[in-house]
From TrEMBL:
NCBIfam families: PRK00011.1. Residues 37-415 form the Serine hydroxymethyltransferase-like domain. Signal peptide: none annotated. The modification N6-(pyridoxal phosphate)lysine is found at residue 258. Keywords: Amino-acid biosynthesis, Methyltransferase, One-carbon metabolism, Pyridoxal phosphate, Transferase. One of its GO terms (biological process) is glycine biosynthetic process from serine. GO terms for cellular component: cytoplasm. GO terms for molecular function: glycine hydroxymethyltransferase activity; methyltransferase activity; pyridoxal phosphate binding. Belongs to the SHMT family. This is Serine hydroxymethyltransferase. Its cofactor is pyridoxal 5'-phosphate. InterPro entries: PyrdxlP-dep_Trfase, PyrdxlP-dep_Trfase_major, PyrdxlP-dep_Trfase_small, Ser_HO-MeTrfase, Ser_HO-MeTrfase-like, SHMT-like_dom.
Length: 449
């Protein structure tokens, strides 16, 4: 071992000072019961701060309705139901009502996504992507996916499920100005690589993808398009974003807890009956066993909310994102895609190099109760992930709290105040708490109606 290397037993991925804080707290506790109280109090602190006092502009988050939250704590969450729906398809007896809950969920998802098949058992969208790679590729296959500086997610890269599957990963060529696929460069690269699968959809997505054109190209050698709609899932269901299955993608995965605004978990939908066996074989018994039936119930309830409110809710999210992009741009902030209306999704992306970079800005904003995240943008390298140039903002939560275009002006003003250090952070924080205090109710749901 080289002299400057840390010994193996000292290696720790978590922040050592936070773990030490926890150890000290527990050491001071007089009993396990007091330890439990410490846990509950930490949850309470977050509920008050993030739940009531912050402007949460994190693009992957959404507040769930009271009904969805209640179902997450339901009795059925203590039950085990390994296997497929129906008495002979399970390991365990006694699943009569669980079968009903799960079947309702599957049928609701099929209705919401206007598709032939849906699976409800993925506890994360990461596992949905693993399902796709397990079902549709073999180790060593070439695939094309989007690099991180263009919004690609690790699940489709070497460090995630695609890498675990042992795939050869090539980049989908992207245009750094238009923030869209460079179709000509793609046609050329794809014909050389002949990928089995091309993964579209990204954690940073502002504009639609040329799915149909790309599907036509890869069909020359029997390749397929897979759309990772983790972020856009709700926008797709609400008719505010292109519908990948209708445009030539063979499978769509997504996070139920991002724009879809259900319980954090994964969804996978498809139309082709030939894919049903490979996909469901990967879901069970490979990637799901005890799949949290409380979460399935909450997902079904969220899908029903979507049927009633999805269209209106998702349209407002996109309008709010466009309004926020415009308001920030008018105040001199560099917003990506400004020349094409900023965004067609729930996200806007800022270039904050002038203000110290994404890490610095996100940390400062958080001190003023404005929650965002640092983000790689096309001028960065994948390895810049810890100190990237960009900032990602999403409008899902503020929209569900009832904010409209006028409130986006106020939010832009608060953000610029922090970026330009116009006043002490403590003063901005007070103004954020005051603004947020008027928006405490969850909209676009049946609760309180
Ligand atoms: C968030 C995200 C995922 C992972 O989703 P989880 O539900 O958090 O597991 C996968 N792909 C993309 C593009 C994402 O943004």
């Amino acid at each position: 071992m080289a002299a400057n290397q840390t010994p193996a037993q000292a290696f720790e991925v978590h922040d050592a000072s936070v773990l030490k804080w926890a150890r000290d707290v527990l050491d001071r506790c007089s009993s396990p019961r007091v330890m439990q109280t410490e846990v509950i109090q930490a949850v309470e602190r977050n509920a008050v701060w993030r739940g009531e006092e912050c402007l949460n502009l994190l693009a992957p988050e959404a507040p769930t309705s009271p009904t969805v939250r209640r179902l997450l704590a339901s009795e059925v969450g203590t039950r085990a139901a390994e296997g497929h729906i129906g008495p002979t398809e399970r390991w365990f007896a006694g699943t009569k009502y669980i079968d009903e809950i799960e079947a309702l969920c599957v049928e609701l998802l099929k209705e919401v996504f206007q598709c032939k098949y849906a699976d409800h058992r993925l506890v994360a969208s990461m596992l949905g992507n693993m399902t796709v790679y397990a079902a549709l590729t073999k180790p060593g296959d070439p695939v094309m996916t989007i690099a991180q500086p263009f919004g690609g997610h690790s699940s489709n890269r070497i460090d995630g499920p695609a890498g675990i599957r042992g795939l050869h990963i090539h980049d989908v060529p992207m245009d750094p100005v238009e923030l869209e696929v460079d179709l000509e460069a793609f046609a050329q690269a794809a014909r050389q690589v002949q990928p089995r699968l091309v993964a579209l959809g990204a954690s940073m997505t502002l504009f639609p993808f040329p799915i149909r054109e790309m599907a036509d190209i890869v069909s020359e050698w029997g390749g397929k398009i897979f759309f990772d709609g983790a972020h856009q899932l709700g926008l797709i269901a609400g008719g505010q974003f292109q519908n990948p299955l209708k445009e030539g993608a063979c499978v769509l995965t997504g996070s139920a807890g991002k724009t879809f605004s259900g319980p954090q978990s994964g969804i996978i939908v498809w139309d082709d009956p030939e894919l049903t066996k490979p996909i469901t074989d990967a879901v069970f018994p490979a990637l799901a066993a005890t799949h949290q039936v409380n979460r399935v119930a909450a997902l079904a309830a969220a899908a029903a909310e979507f049927l009633a409110f999805g269209k209106e809710y998702m349209a407002q999210i996109v309008s709010n994102a466009q309004a926020l992009g415009k308001a920030l741009s008018e105040r001199g902030i560099t917003v990506l895609g400004a020349h094409k209306g900023f965004t067609r999704t729930h996200q806007i992306i800022l270039d904050v190099r002038a203000f110290g970079g994404g890490l610095e800005v996100a940390q400062e904003l958080a001190k003023a109760n404005i929650i965002t995240n640092k983000n790689l943008i096309p001028c960065d390298k994948s390895t810049d992930w810890d100190h990237p140039s960009g900032l990602r903002i999403g409008t899902t939560e503020v929209t569900r709290l009832g904010m409209k275009e006028a409130e986006m002006e106020s939010i832009a003003e608060l953000i610029v105040t922090v970026l330009e250090k116009r006043e002490p952070l403590e003063v901005t924080r007070k103004r954020v708490v005051e603004m947020r205090s008027a928006y405490q109710k969850i909209h676009y749901c049946f609760d309180g109606q």
